[in-house]
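Hey team,

Filing this mostly as a record. A colleague (T.K.) asked me to run one chain through the structure pipeline before their review meeting, and I want the input and output archived in the tracker in case anyone asks later how it was produced. No errors, nothing strange. Just documentation.

Input sequence:
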Amino acid sequence: VQLVESGGGVVQAGGSLRLSCVASGFTFDDYAIGWFRQAPGKEREGVSCISSSDGSTYYVDSVKGRFTISRDNAKNTVDLQMNSLKPEDTAVHYCRWSTTNYWGQGTQVTVSS
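Output structure:
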């Protein structure tokens, strides 16, 4: 099993980034994928997830209306479009295979004020 994130970077407040998670080693279509983040000195928190079946989505309140999660089962990818970024979005962002203990290595998102 492997999950690889990309797309992080440094942006000014109000800017946008698009994170991608490419997964392999399991039947991608059958599982939900989640995005999490961990800021320095804070616990890892769930940001968003997308189901396998009907594509239903979840967002933590702090990103609703700004972030959009999507998946492409043909490419085994889940993207997180992040708009109107705020300094408090600064964190390492990880994708996770469903509720398993398989995580990507993380990608750093830094939002400057």
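Quick notes for T.K.: DSSP finds no helices and ten strands in the chain. The mean pLDDT is 97.
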